[in-house]
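cron nightly-structures :: item 1 of 1
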Amino acid sequence: MMRFPIHDGTPPRFAGPAPKACDVVIIGGGVMGVMTAWFLAEKGLRVTVCEKGRVAGEQSSRNWGWIRQQGRDFAELPIMMESMAIWHSLSRELGEALGFRQEGVLYLAKSEAELAGFDAWRKTAVEMGLAVDLLGSGAVAQKLNGSAKAWQGGLFTASDARAEPWVAVPMLAEGAVRRGAVIVEGCAVRALDLAAGRVAGVVTEQGRIACDRVVVAGGAWSSLFLCASNVHIPQLAVLSSVAATEPMAEVFSGAACDADFAFRRRADGGYSIAPGSGHDFFIGPDAFRNLLKFLPVWKGDWRKTGFRPAAPRHFPDAWTTPRRWRADEVSPFERCRILNPAPNMARIDAVQRHFATAFPHLGRPRLRSAWAGMIDTMPDVVPVIDHVPNIPGLTIATGLCGHGFGIGPGMGRVVADLVENRDTGHDLTRFRLSRFTDGSPLIPGPSL
């Protein structure tokens, strides 16, 4: 099978060098960091993105490629609807190569109870201005060419879209550079540089960068980095396995899923396929530290989770990964440039079987490649988008919980305004950092 693109030997696109000073340093070159840089640069700020490995080397290129409003937490939905409008403008600027296509997202219900849950979400979404349809079994069968599986019905949002993540996010990074941002791959930030308790810069493996604002958008690495500065967030990461099939006849031009399998039509004529809800979790020190906060979501999710006793060496929550290091020594971020876990091929095998059962005229899909990514997640399945009160100049934008690719453009605009202390235009209360310490109940978002 083909290797994942980030490991195919292609040279870095963004070599820097890192400047000696700027206005804002963004830690992390995924979609969140790239789009925050895009909007800050548009405002005329000198912004530098430091990426320890490669732009979109981790979850931003390994996700399913869905750009969905459907199923969002209602605090995220207005930002996602704005993000969809931004995706349209990005497509006009960057052209067909971006891969943005509005083909719809379809959730498939295996039971009447599941369909009722879809309908409950739909009613509120419609009140918020999103056009969503609840489909009966016959309408679902009409959308899925040749399906032999009898679903009870489905939830369909025609305005939802898809794109190719590995192609799209580097293109967005190039757009940010054209606006004046500096992006430096292979440049790990080792530590914050503080003066009188405020951000005064960062120390990278290439030297110090003076700045008065820092955005931590490090995905699954964010908790480890913040912990070294005594900022604690209850973040964990789960392994999600995905595969790309060889070209196949089209059964649906958009993206669809039920509890067993998910698929998304690809630009190359194949499908990206994945478990509908299953994932794997490496047990590490943070699992014990955050156990109580994650219990509500785990109670409803543990049957879908494969537990493993330890993460691979140098992963963020591996048992031997240090939690403290000096700014003048090699950091954990340099010891593991790119999280590249092996996919769970047993789960992929099950997805192939489910796909073949649903579409017997196509048979078992042949795989072109398979990969896995580490999805950073929070106990309530929504991100942290907030300033750190006790470190002026430090902003957190992490924990996008597998929802980041689609919402990245909109959330990048929000974070850019947050960094400048401007009105973001959205209520960010649900994403506040203090929710983990102020006694508020942590209510998980919809598991749709």
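cron nightly-structures :: done
The chain is about 30% helix and 25% strand.
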